[in-house]
Amino acid sequence: MIARVWSIVLKEFIQIRRDRRTLAIVLLLPVMQLTLFGYAINTTVDHIATVVLDQARDAQSRGFLSTFFNTGYFDLVGQVGSIEQVRQAIDAGTARVGIVLPPEFSRDLVAGRAPRAQMVVDGSDPNTAQTALLVAGTLSQRSAARQAIDLRPIVLYNPSMQSINFMIPGLLGLIMQFQTLLLTAFAVVRERERGTLEQLVVTPVKPWELMLGKILPYVTVAFANVLFASAIGHFWFGVEFAGSFPLLLVLAAVFVLSSLGLGLLVSTVSQTQTQAMQLALFVMLPSIILSGFVFARESMPHPIRELGLLIPLTYFLQILRGIILKGVGVEVLWPEVLALAAFGVIVFGLSANRFRKTLD
């Protein structure tokens, strides 16, 4: 009996060794999961991007501001000259917090009066906003003169700081990527498994016509799901839509281009639907962890944060939350739009070229 079982075990190991693509995925996926989860998942929110409007500009105001940045919770990303520029920095996503000190700040501090200060917080990410408010509330009780600061917070975009307002836009992007990537990859691989892809190749249908015909139905499905999910988010969960929905649909089409490219790329290197599923998970896992879908990217180590810039969902989440929660337009989101468009054109072009070679 042992000999018979051992012979089957050896046969299975031979099968695994022959299927090198699946073996590589099986071996690499746990390593990638451990690395990403170990470095990227950080429930402690720190290094919050902060701009400062210091109208006092003296030793007392600089001393008060230094108490913020010495904690490690806040990172100074710029000095601005007006409250409008504070708002613009938060709109653009270059800052999460703005600290405003009035001209009379130091005079009131020296005179023994509680000086006023203002803290403008981006409430679109509730976890970051709550951390910023908690730390700032504690620090405002301390000063060089052992005197409390009258720090008055203003929470923008999501004053109630409900997490559902943060998650629903992210889920829209995740649904679109999952639908287009997985279904496109499966559609091509399924034809190959059934042997019907070769039949399509010998027909008068050109490669680009075949590719277009395969992907268009799934584009339609992805947009239908987005419309349905948007309706549920608004009418069931009560997420208010602050920006332009037509603009969102246009920019979503740019994002779909990159997701379709990834799906085609997966299909060209997969021989079976199982391999396509494994490769799709290989792509989706970094997208969920590194894009800012759940965890603040500011809290990630620098190399891991830079790696997230290679993920199209990173840019699309900024677009989604910018339009839905902040109501901003292309004049603010153009860096994300350009990056997403460039990524989509490059990946889709490479994938389409490889798809044509596979057919040939």
Molecular structure report:
The protein is an alpha/beta fold and 360 residues long. The protein folds into two domains: 48-156, abc type-2 transporter like domain (abc type-2 transporter like fold, 3-Layer(aba) Sandwich), CATH 3.40.1710.10; 163-359, no CATH class. 67% of the residues lie in helices and 9% in strands. It is built from 14 helices and five strands. It has helices spanning 2-18, 20-40, 59-69, 83-92, 105-110, 126-139, 163-194, 196-201, 207-236, 245-269, 273-290, 302-307, 312-326, 330-359, and strands at residues 48-54, 74-79, 97-101, 116-122, 150-156. A five-stranded mixed beta sheet has the order 2-1-3-4-5, sandwiched between helices. Strand 1 (48-54), helix 3 and strand 2 form a beta-alpha-beta unit. Helix 7 (163-194) runs antiparallel to helix 11, helix 10 (245-269) packs across helix 11 and helix 13 packs antiparallel against helix 14 (330-359). The longest helix has 32 residues, at 163-194. The radius of gyration is 26 Å and the shape is elongated. 37% of the residues are buried.
Write the layout of secondary structure elements.
Layout: H1 2-18, H2 20-40, E1 48-54, H3 59-69, E2 74-79, H4 83-92, E3 97-101, H5 105-110, E4 116-122, H6 126-139, E5 150-156, H7 163-194, H8 196-201, H9 207-236, H10 245-269, H11 273-290, H12 302-307, H13 312-326, H14 330-359
Parallel strand pairs: 1-2, 1-3, 4-5
Antiparallel strand pairs: 3-4
